[in-house]
Amino acid sequence: MQKDGLSKDAILKQLDEFQTKDLDWKSGKFFGYVFYPGDEVYEVIQLAYTKYMSANGLNPAVFPGLRKMETDIISMCANLFNGGDDATGVMTSGGTESIMMALLSAREYAKNVLKMEGIPEVILPVSVHPAFHKACHFFGLKAVDIPLDNAFKPDLALMEKAINKRTVLLVGSAPQYPQGIVDPIPQIAALALKHKLLCHVDACVGGFMLPFLEKNGYSIPLWDFRVEGVTSISADIHKYGYAAKGASVIMYKNASIRKQQFYIKTDWTGGIYGSPSFAGTRPGGAIAAAWAVLNFLGENGFMKMAKATMDETQKMINGIKEIPELQIFGNPDATLFSFGAEKMDIHTIADEMAILGWVINRQTEPPGLHVFVTQHHVGKAEMLLNDLQFSVKKAKGFSLNNLKKDLQVGVVKGMNKLLSKEMFEKVTKMAGKSSGGAESKRKASMYGMMGELKGTGTLEEMVLDFVDELNSPEKPNK
Ligand SMILES: Cc1ncc(COP(=O)(O)O)c(C=O)c1O
User: What's the pLDDT tens digit per position in 162-205?
Assistant: First the structure.
């Protein structure tokens, strides 16, 4: 800590400097992590956040404004997800917390309502977000994994076979993250109804996209409370709701299931304590910013953004389908998808894309690249497709001479126009070097983290060391 504090100017200068080291997501060459609604909406969110930055959602009675905003958000979500009058929920800090709350209430439901003995089990398609396994780890639940079929949807026969007397919850995603596919929620929920189980739909990604796509007339599989048997839904406002980070909802079909997630302690020496979710202190800024963006954009604003994002996604998917070396995985339902290259190393292609400035999340099962299209990618499909064509060629081992010839005759369409002079020179220089292969395989396909795994232990040990390193101060020579 500084002995005497720094000046405001010095602090802001330092923050600007830190930001220069971050990835330039505004370039549109970077997927995931950031959902930017444009400067005008951003300003509204920023103002709302700072106005309520010191307010604490811990005790809504002290901040009735926050309480009003949160209950407004919950009723907007109940409406958006067709939950009727009984649907209710709680705001949380993000998708992971919402999912954790759904699994906590399932555990408590097993104990308090089903009077189940032993360790409750939850049935999870392998495509669910790792937050589900994290929740099982935290809450002592047993996760039962269900493989996917060729369409990247869970095998329903195996799902039913996995149900036993300790099963409490079935899960589906709308859509799942890896391939952007909406799971067959009506069938999963029907299984839940048949066996008298809970059914959670993870719409962390789709919650603020699918309803607006449907209102725009796109054909979207049914996934929300209209499906009989769905008992809870997680949906992130800080994703396609474009709110400031720290805003999600966990919605329940009714208040009696919601109650299972509350924590009460009546004999604390500091007073009686009651808390609706994980957090104690809850950031007023995140609640106010979420309320502001939902009200500022309104249904029409969200519909417009959803349409533009979906149209751009379809341009990307159709363009990738025309590149013979690449294959889209399954039939993505919304605005995220992944693709592979059957006869090539897709991660080598990712390396080539990285030289052109693209940061694309890598996947391993199956090997693929993940594209998460948002508002600030609108208008970027052509650049992505041109760079992909170029990267595929280069990954196939095109020589520097061939590449230069291609660029001159414009085979790699628009390439020279799209790249800065500096980048163009760098690319043509790199083209002479054989690329990919063993080098690219060292790159980690880590969701939510970019980096290279080092060391010689098991994969778990290397990832553990990597997480440890990321959460420690940087070494001076880096
Ligand atoms: C389908 C899905 N569910 C849950 C999450 C977790 O959300 P968060 O990162 O806000 O915890 C994600 C994040 O990308 C996701 O894609």
Answer: 999 999 999 999 999 999 999 999 999 999 999 999 999 999 99
Ligand 1 midpoint to CA 71 (Å): 23
DSSP 377-444: GTT-HHHHHHHHHHHHHHHTT--HHHHHHHHHHTSSTTHHHHS-HHHHHHHHHHHTS---THHHHTB-
Q: Which CATH number fits domain 302-470: 3.30.160.20, 3.20.20.70, 3.30.1490.110, 3.90.1150.10?
A: 3.90.1150.10
Q: 283 C-alpha vs ligand 1 centroid, how far in Å?
A: 19
Strands (E), 93-160: 121-125, 142-146
With the most atoms of ligand 1 within 8 angstroms of its CB, the residue from 96, 181, 185, 447 to mutate is 96
Query: Which residues are 142's β-sheet partners?
Result: 121
Work out whether strand 232-236 and strand 198-202 pair parallel, antiparallel, or are unpaired.
parallel
Q: Is 244 a residue whose pLDDT tops 90?
A: yes
What's the confidence (pLDDT) of residue 474? 73
Which of 101, 127, 177 gets mutated to test ligand 1 (max ligand atoms within 8 A of its CB)?
177
Q: Which residues sit with their C-beta closer than 6 Å to ligand 1?
A: 94-96, 129, 131, 173, 176-177, 202, 204-205, 236
CA of 194 to the centre of ligand 1 (A): 29
CATH annotation of 55-282: 3.40.640.10
What are the CA-CA distances from residue 78 to residues 83, 251, 336, 440 (Å)? 5, 7, 24, 46
In the three-class reduction of DSSP (H, G, I as helix; E, B as strand; rest coil), residue 141 is classed as coil
Render pLDDT for 119-155 as a digit per residue (tens, 0 to 9): 999 999 999 999 999 999 999 999 999 999 999 999 9
Mean pLDDT rounded to a whole number for the chain: 89
pLDDT digits (tens, 9 = 90+) for 427-447: 445 443 433 333 444 354 555
User: With b meaning 16 or more CB within 10 Å and e meaning fewer, what string describes 34-59?
Assistant: ebebeeebeebbeebbeebeebebbe
**Cα of 478 to ligand 1 centre, how many Å?**
30
Residue to mutate (ligand 1; options 98, 176, 236, 333; most atoms within 8 A of CB): 236
Give domain limits for the chain. 55-282, 302-470
Which atom of ligand 1 lies nearest, measured to the CA of 238? 10
367-372 and 361-364 as β-strands: parallel, antiparallel, unpaired? Answer: antiparallel
User: Measuring from atom 9 of ligand 1, which residue has the nearest CA?
Assistant: 95
Neighbours of 248 (CB within 10 A): 29
Encode pLDDT of 47-67 as tens digits.
Answer: 999 999 999 998 888 999 999
Does this model's pTM top 0.70? My answer is yes
